[in-house]
């Protein structure tokens, strides 16, 4: 049975201070937006969810570390906190771009001060999470916490970008090439997500095969699959089509363009992931 003790380093260390700032700033952001009452659109709902989700989980992390209760959880705590800080940084960064671009008009019509301060708080909250990621990232040669290494952080990035791709998909059933691209996004998302979950749940040790080499092989396969998607998605999406005028955020052409860029981002992520994973497995630094 876990006994609660107070560990003040949880809130006085640099990581703890970064988390405190993230809690305060996310609270400021969603409180100000809630006071305007203008968040009922899909984009506004996403922004509110992001701030509330990050606030709640970060506050829970702080409490568990302050009372040293995290050791009673059947998970790898360092992997969980590393993965969450990376996810929170990505989510808040996206929100810091989406909220002002969709909720603050030009010129601004109502609640301008609250929206501007909420946007500023969201940007500062992203910096707080980015600082936490930098502070908790594993040093070269340290693989005790896989999700705090560069390949581990890239796994979180790859899953998040795939989620953004899914949110932009609308019509792809008409072309076999587009269906293959969606299959690539789905297969890589599922496998990468399972790697993250199994790492946090300490289940990878039960896999009866050379895990490190298997991950390198998977990264190479995912890279090849994303190369095909990077070629086929724009080829079939923009074939014999021009950008309509006007074309707003719900326009299919803009969504296809967004998927194209996100596919390239994930292609680069899997390439860097493969390079780092190969170095970690096959290139040993002399002791």
Automatic annotation (TrEMBL):
Pfam families: MARVEL (PF01284). Keywords: Membrane, Repeat, Transmembrane, Transmembrane helix. Its main location: membrane. It comes from the Eukaryota. It is found in: Membrane. The keyword Membrane applies. The keyword NAD does not apply. It is a multi-pass membrane protein. Residues 10-141, 146-282 form the MARVEL domain. GO terms for cellular component: membrane. The chain crosses the membrane at residues 12-34, 46-70, 82-100, 112-131, 177-204, 216-236, 256-276. InterPro entries: Marvel, MYADM-like. Belongs to the MAL family. PANTHER family: MYELOID-ASSOCIATED DIFFERENTIATION MARKER MYADM FAMILY MEMBER, MYELOID-ASSOCIATED DIFFERENTIATION MARKER-LIKE. This is MYADM protein. The gene is Myadm.
